[in-house]
Design goal:
heterodimer; A: 521 residues; mainly alpha; Serine Threonine Protein Phosphatase 5, Tetratricopeptide repeat; two-stranded antiparallel ribbon; two-stranded antiparallel sheet; 21 helices; B: 1008 residues; mainly beta; Immunoglobulin-like; Ferric Hydroxamate Uptake Protein, Chain A, domain 1; 22-stranded antiparallel barrel; 5-stranded mixed beta sheet
Chain lengths: 521, 1008
């Protein structure tokens, strides 16, 4: 018996004493911890790549932003079977937490911004092999962060403005568009200074000095800082940029997957089918095989072929057709931009061309479908690899003309830039147009501005530019809205003082005391 | 720990020897003589079917219809006579050849022993709130999982079945204490967890430790209460064989949805209205498909479940055994689903001298064919005009078409056929313990438990579509493996001594629990197809492969101690403490000490107490603090996501990105919950009437919760865990029961339990004073999850009414509304309907909950009924909201009467396609009263008279039928007022939840 007592005493005392509490130190080695990251140049480089990665999301550039940007502008509309989606494109907002559009776009842009902030907050802790390498990475990150913010302001105007790495308890303060633009201008000026003007073949797709100038110019334009914008255009159009950028002779080259990263392109979203996993993994943030293709085509293809989430307004067809080319033909931009019942008749030399692999169906009546970025695949694959040209040289030329006009009226220089765009489309110079009264248009600032609104609408239709243009030209008086109603009946639902911004996702407003819902929502 | 393991090796060795002894027990044959006798109750009425056995042998008999038995026994043998509900008696056979044995009815439930974790306590000495459920109660309940079987049996325990085949019910004890995990801790035979695959037929008893003092010994994981489950073991006596066979037919409730003809009428009406009102893009009615599909009929049929249990049990004083086999086959009531289970269990225990040992091993193999999505959402979403099959579509199934049925509903049949997920699982659970007892007072115990889980999910995605606009996904096959090990080592030292009137019970121990999990998956495109058969091996697929995987690891180390002291069974004291360290919290905060105290006073034990009709009266009070750290493995460690990729260059190439995706809070601490409990127990009228009342107050602080954070943070991959806020719960529970026997043949019992729980938010974390989710708002000082919605005020009947709906300044509030549109309350009076107009309009919390059980037995018949109800809560009817008003061509319910000019109703707006403004989810129109009472179980059984069964060589034959959920009394118009909520902040939202099945079970039970 004594033996047992001894044994038990021994065991218990030993057990209690020998329980080494370090058995509880269990580290997560499934991946690297944040504490061991942001130490090397390579870490920063991969941090920057993760910001580009955010382009491939449903709420960013894979699909949803197109529906919303076209839908709100007067060149597009959603007649989707998904009623909530289609109401969102018509200024009818019922559920402010509508996941597919409102919260997804919002959230995924902020994920991108969080990623960019991590790079910027850690870059100074790292030693680089060369200062220019560091400058390039900082420049790219600042460009990207500004890029994401630029589109956020286009949709919501008054944003929680986050420029530091987030923590879970943050309740960021709301800033006005004016405050946001001011900061973006600073960041983009820095990006301009830091970024190289050209990229090697392997680095094509990364932001360049030209891209930063172009985005900076767009911010200045929205901010009505015409003279500052002109400085950017001078570099892009008249200065060094001349060596890198020009209009492509064929307007269609801007929308084909075989003519990507061409000289008309200042910045493109690089889509690819390299991660072709065959099923929808677009938004899986943890999947290295997540799709990097675009769903632009699926999103806009007619019902029965694609989702038909967004389509074009009929006025585009009429406007394109009213002015003929110098050869007396229809504007080729019409052919490349949209698809409609008379395409075959209007472009007899291309009458046999199929769109989305299909012929026009009578049941579509006088509806107009978006053709830009389409490919001949049939049936449509979920994704395609056609890059989205986000900043285009012809946009710059027209903005240059607009800025010059705002400063000193329709000067010859301004008209000259407009004519470059017209003449690429084989239209006569403005002054020789048989449809427009060139002299009258060039007579004063207001008529020229009004004319640019049409020219921009036709050159840049359905490229996520129009809504930004409309905001720049003003949506705060009923007269402007009434003009838009003629082209797009959705503007019947537009309420001045309210509908120029989307409703901020309600859950964000509810749970952030520093954030107010946009006016009248 | 090395030394502990070393000791284990030795113990195991000894146990092996012991085990051999047990199984090696042989019977010795001695001189035999015949003895006969009669077994009666105290009134002299014969007892039929009582068991008479010769102690120490397998020699036994049962009494016949007259209570008589005959047995050949050795001279000087001791007979053990027992019958359920009576006190077992031992009779030494002297020279008599005829015996009359009178059995006393067993009313001494108070002498029952209650398992309280690392020990037992006599029920009369309990100072905490503990409910006990016995195997007899569970026997006739029709549930394949142990939690479901507990439904409605005790107060303060809310069990909600899921309705999905093979999926377990959920359980909450005494309301919400936590914001993350409200499931109690399950302890099965000393092992943590393991309730998921437990066969209810193997369960001997369930003890529910509801308050802090009883649960305190489990410390940090016990904040939501503890459920201790003990599986069966053999009883002394000859081998008993028990065979139970159940056959259950199940039906799932169905919506009363429109058929194609009715639906087309309303849908045309919605299109006509849209055309009339100029909804953009709507120019003509749909060119309807010609089918008339009842999607519910396609998906739902009668489920057939067969369940067989066979067990062998018995033993002697020195060794006992229980062996069981289980086979379950559930042909699901849902198309192309099913669940299969095989299991066995071997429980043995033995004792020799100062040594004793026990082991429990169970192995379960299951196979599940999963259901894709939630059919109750899709039944509403899809139009009844769409055909099930449509050769024009890829894959050959029907779905929406922009011209014929502009509808994104999913074809559920196609989904089940085209995307199959099979999920086989293997679960091995084993524990073995050895104990040495010295001087009958000191007990040293070592318990070692091991759980091994492995599961595979095999996915086959055939090519083909099930919804409009799906694109052409490639066919693929996927394999996902998950396996885990859970090891528990516990050593306890227990001292028990009674010194005159002092009862002392001390326990101390150390436990160490580790968990290791590992997962891996691979998916490959383009599996080979031969004819129309897919080859499901990864090797045979020809497309791209993707793969991934990871591991999880955790450990918890604890020291525990408890003092139980009773003086003369009158004054009771219990002090418990546990110190826990967990790897899930940062090293500087990972240790927590949790202590509780409780006191009891058995008033009936006092000499001055002299109330003849009260047999027992006890007052008890306790207070204790418990913890909760049931969060993820590494929630305090921030990590880098290596998945992002981007493409650059010409030719294009992939570049690797890395970043932090998920935010973390690195300063996490233990969540603590302090509970005060006061209880009163009484037994009256010869113990026929029992009564228990409890009052409790609890306060949780530093609640660990994955509280949603702002999207503007850029966080992705789940909300970080945070110690956010504080919550209080106050409740009253009353349990009362009556049990009696009338004459010799009729006995009956009835019990009623009532509970009422109120919760209040005391703090919300991150410095917030309010927290909102879609449908709900939580604010300090108020209960969680109050409905926060736009309030509707009926339907505009005319243009005049639209113009007359103005604020105080005369501003027309809804200038664009048309007659037939909903009138919303401009709550803040600013003249527009905006998010500021949401208001508190209802509460998801029942005013009280009730459970009733009734039992009666007459001769061989037994009848039991269980019912429970919840009263006074509001429910958001998600199905009604999803059906809406034809805005998306979804289906709707028969009998709806929308507003029309000709029939201007005031409760339902006009139907209109392409306009969701009247059917928004966050409006008060979808709120309903959710009170219900449900007869969850009605069981009727008949036991053949012992004489007859004996002729068949059986000891007992019982046949029974159990009806489940057949009668529910409620005004709620949704499918089922008892649903799984969609999260703690939206407790009352019935988001097209799975309804509970209705079933009829036939059972046959044989014992010999």
């Amino acid at each position: 018996m004594k033996k047992y007592i001894y044994f038990l005493t021994c065991v218990f005392s030993l057990t209690f004493a020998s329980c080494d509490e370090s058995v509880l130190d269990i580290n997560n080695e499934n991946t690297i911890s944040t504490g061991n990251f942001w130490k090397t140049e390579a870490d920063i480089e991969s941090g920057v790549v993760s910001v580009y990665n955010m382009f491939y999301r449903q709420g960013t550039w894979t699909r949803n932003i197109y529906t919303q940007m076209h839908g709100m502008a007067d060149d597009g509309v959603s007649l989707a079977g998904w009623t909530e989606l289609n109401e969102y494109s018509k200024f009818i907002y019922t559920n402010y937490n509508f996941g597919e559009v409102n919260t997804k776009i919002w959230k995924e842009h902020y994920v991108a911004i969080f990623r960019a902030n991590q790079v910027l907050d850690n870059v100074d802790k790292v030693t680089f092999t060369s200062e220019s390498r560091k400058a390039d990475l900082v420049g790219q990150t600042k460009f990207l962060r500004s890029f994401y913010y630029f589109y956020l302001t286009a949709l919501w105007d008054n944003l929680p403005f986050v420029l530091k790495t987030s923590s879970a308890s943050d309740m960021p303060a709301q800033k006005t568009p004016d405050e946001i633009f001011t900061q973006l201008e600073e960041d983009l000026k820095d990006a301009v200074a830091k970024l190289p003007a050209t990229r090697t073949a392997a680095d094509q797709g990364r932001a360049t000095k030209g891209a930063a100038y172009a985005l900076l110019a767009k911010v200045y334009m929205q901010h009505h800082k015409w003279e500052e914008a002109i400085k950017c255009f001078e570099w892009l159009v008249d200065g060094e940029g001349k060596n890198y950028y020009d209009l492509m002779p064929d307007y269609g080259d801007n929308f084909r997957n075989t003519t990507e990263n061409n000289k008309e392109s200042l910045f493109e979203i690089q889509f690819s089918l390299i991660n072709n996993v065959g099923f929808d993994q677009t938004d899986n943030y943890r999947d290295p095989n997540a799709q990097m293709g675009s769903q632009i085509e699926m999103n806009q293809a007619p019902a029965g072929i694609g989702w038909n989430n967004v389509e074009a307004r009929r006025w585009l067809v009429d406007y394109y057709k009213r002015e003929k080319t110098v050869e007396g033909k229809n504007d080729i931009r019409l052919f490349y931009s949209v698809w409609y019942n008379d395409s075959a008749k209007d472009f007899p030399e291309r009458a046999d061309s199929l769109i989305y692999g299909n012929k026009w169906r009578a049941e579509w009546g006088n509806r107009v479908f978006i053709k830009k970025y389409s490919t001949p695949a049939n049936p449509l694959f979920y994704w395609n690899d056609n890059n989205f040209r986000s900043l285009r040289y012809s946009d710059m030329l027209l903005l240059y003309a607009e800025a010059l006009n705002e400063v000193s009226g329709p000067t010859a220089k301004a008209i000259g830039y407009l004519n470059r765009v017209r003449q690429r489309a084989k239209l006569p110079a403005l002054e020789s147009s048989s449809y427009y009264n060139g002299a009258q248009i060039a007579s004063n600032k207001n008529t020229f501005r009004d004319h640019l609104k049409i020219e921009r609408g036709l050159e840049l239709s359905l490229e996520c530019v129009r809504w930004i243009d409309l905001k720049r030209w003003g949506l705060n008086d009923q007269a402007s809205i009434d003009q838009l109603k003629v082209r797009d009946s959705d503007f019947n639902n537009f309420i001045v003082g309210k509908s120029h911004s989307m409703p901020i996702p309600q859950s964000e407003v509810d749970n952030n005391p520093n954030l107010k819902q946009n006016p009248n929502y | 720990m090395k030394n502990g393991l070393f000791f284990l090796e030795k113990t195991r060795w000894r146990n092996l020897v012991l085990m051999l002894c047990v199984f090696g027990c042989s019977l010795t044959v001695l001189a035999q003589r015949k003895v006969s006798g009669t077994v009666t109750d105290m009134q002299g009425e014969p007892i039929v079917g009582a068991s008479v056995h010769e102690k120490g042998t397998a020699n036994a008999a049962a009494t016949d219809l007259e209570g008589k038995f005959t047995l050949n026994v050795a001279s000087g043998a001791v007979l053990g006579v027992s019958y359920i509900g009576y006190v077992m008696q031992e009779v030494t056979v002297g020279n008599q050849t005829s015996l009359v044995i009178r059995l006393e009815q067993d009313n001494k439930t108070l002498d029952e022993v209650v398992v309280i974790g690392y020990g037992t306590v006599k029920k009369k000495d309990l100072t905490g709130a503990v409910s006990v459920i016995k195997s007899e109660t569970l026997r006739d309940r029709n549930s394949q999982d142990i939690i479901g079987a507990m439904q409605g049996l005790t107060s303060g325990v809310k069990v909600t079945s899921s309705g999905l085949p093979g999926q377990q019910a959920s359980i909450v004890i005494r309301g919400l204490g936590s914001l993350t995990n409200n499931s109690p801790l399950f302890v099965v035979d000393g092992m943590i967890g393991g309730e998921a695959h437990l066969n209810p037929a193997d369960v001997e008893s369930i003890q529910i430790l509801k308050d802090a003092s009883s649960a305190a010994i489990y410390g940090s994981r016990a904040a939501n209460g503890v459920v201790i489950i003990t599986t069966k073991n053999g009883k002394e006596g000859p081998m008993k064989v028990q065979l139970d066979a159940n056959f259950t037919t199940t039906r799932l409730p169905q919506y009363d949805l429109m058929d194609a003809e009715t639906w087309k009428r309303y849908d045309d009406m919605a299109y006509d209205e849209a055309i009339k009102r100029g909804v953009a893009g709507v120019v003509r009615r749909q060119n309807h498909y010609d089918a008339n599909t009842d999607w519910q009929k396609e998906m739902l049929s009668t489920g057939i479940l067969q369940n067989y249990n066979l067990s062998f049990s018995g033993g002697s004083k020195s060794g006992k055994y229980f062996v069981s086999l289980n086979r379950l086959e559930d042909k699901g009531a849902l198309y192309n689903t099913g669940y299969d289970r095989y299991g066995f269990r071997v429980n043995t225990s033995g004792q020799k001298g100062i040594f004793s040992y026990g082991e429990n091993i169970s192995y379960t193999k299951t196979n599940r064919k999963n259901l894709n999505g939630n059919p109750w959402a899709d039944f509403i979403a899809i139009s009844p005009t769409i055909p099930v099959k449509d050769p024009a579509n890829p894959g050959g199934y029907g779905y929406g078409n922009p011209d014929r049925a502009n509808n994104y509903g999913r074809n559920l049949v196609a989904m089940q056929d085209l995307l199959s997920q099979k999920n086989p699982e293997n679960i091995l659970k084993a524990n073995i313990f050895g104990q040495v007892s010295l001087f009958n007072a000191l007990f040293a115990k070592l318990n070692f438990a091991y759980t091994n889980y492995s599961g595979v999910t095999n996915t086959l995605r055939k090519s083909g579509n099930w919804t409009m606009g799906q694109g052409s996904d490639a066919a693929s096959i996927g394999v996902q493996n998950y396996r885990s090990d859970d090891v528990l080592i516990e050593q306890t030292l227990n001292y028990k001594k009674t010194i005159s009137k002092h009862d002392i019970d001390l326990i101390g121990g150390v436990t160490y629990n580790t968990f290791n999990g590992e997962s891996g998956w691979a998916t490959k495109l383009n599996p080979l197809v031969v004819g129309d058969k897919y080859i499901t091996s990864l090797d045979a697929a020809t497309g791209n492969t993707t793969a991934g995987g990871g591991y999880q690891k955790a450990a918890i180390l604890s020291y525990l101690g408890r003092i139980n002291y009773a003086y003369a069974d009158k004054y009771l004291l219990q002090v418990t403490t546990r110190r826990d360290g967990t790897s899930r919290l940062p090293s500087d905060t990972r240790w927590g000490t949790f202590t509780s105290f409780s006191l009891g006073w058995r008033i009936s034990g006092e000499e001055f107490f002299d109330v003849p009709f009260i047999n027992d009266l006890k007052l008890r009070a306790n207070q204790g603090t418990l913890g909760n750290s049931s969060i993820g493995y590494w929630d305090y460690q921030a990590v880098i996501n290596t998945a992002p990729r981007a493409v650059f260059g010409s030719p294009e190439h992939k570049v690797i990105g890395m970043t932090q995706s998920q935010l973390t809070n690195t300063d996490l601490v233990w969540e603590r919950k302090t509970t005060t409990n006061i209880g009163l127990d009484a037994a009256m009228l010869n113990n026929r009437l029992t009564f228990t009342a409890e009052y409790f107050r609890s306060k949780s602080k530093d609640l660990l919760v994955y509280l949603p954070i702002l999207m503007s943070s850029g966080n992705e991959g789940g909300n970080p865990a945070v110690n956010a806020g504080s919550l209080s719960n106050t409740g009253i529970e009353i349990e009362t029961g009556w049990k009696d026997r009338v004459g010799k043949d009729f006995s009956y019992s009835a019990s009623l339990n009532l509970s009422r729980i109120r919760n209040k938010v005391l703090d919300l974390g991150y410095g917030r004073v309010e927290y909102y989710e879609f449908l709900s708002k939580a604010q300090i000082g108020q209960p969680l999850g109050a409905f926060y919605l736009y309030k509707t005020l009926g339907v505009f009947q005319s243009e005049e009414e639209v113009k007359a709906h103005v604020n105080s300044k005369g501003k027309v509030i809804q200038p664009n509304a048309l007659p037939g549109d909903l009138k919303y309350d401009d709550y803040n009076g600013d003249g527009i309907i905006s998010s500021e107009d949401r208001q508190l309009v209802g509460s998801p919390w029942p005013k009280f909950e009730m459970g009733v059980s009734l039992g009666a037995a007459y001769k061989g018949f037994d009848l039991s009924m269980n019912g429970y109800g919840r009263f006074g809560q509001d429910v958001w009817n998600g199905a009604a909201a999803a059906a809406g008003d034809f805005a998306n061509n979804q289906n709707n319910f028969n009998g709806i009467v929308p507003w029309t000019a000709a029939n201007p109703v005031n409760d339902r707006p006009r139907v209109v396609f392409g306009d969701t403004r009247n059917s928004r989810g966050d409006q008060s129109r979808w709120l309903e009263k959710g009170s219900f009472f449900r007869f969850s179980q009605v069981a009727l059984g008949y036991t053949l008279p012992a004489g007859i069964s004996q002729k068949a060589g059986m000891e007992r034959i019982r046949a029974g039928v159990t009806l489940q959920n057949l009668i529910t009394i409620t005004k709620y118009s949704g499918l089922d007022p008892e649903f799984r909520d969609s999260g703690i902040f939206t407790m009352g939202a019935d988001n097209t939840s799975f309804p509970n099945p209705r079933s009829v079970m036939f059972s046959l039970s044989l014992a010999f």
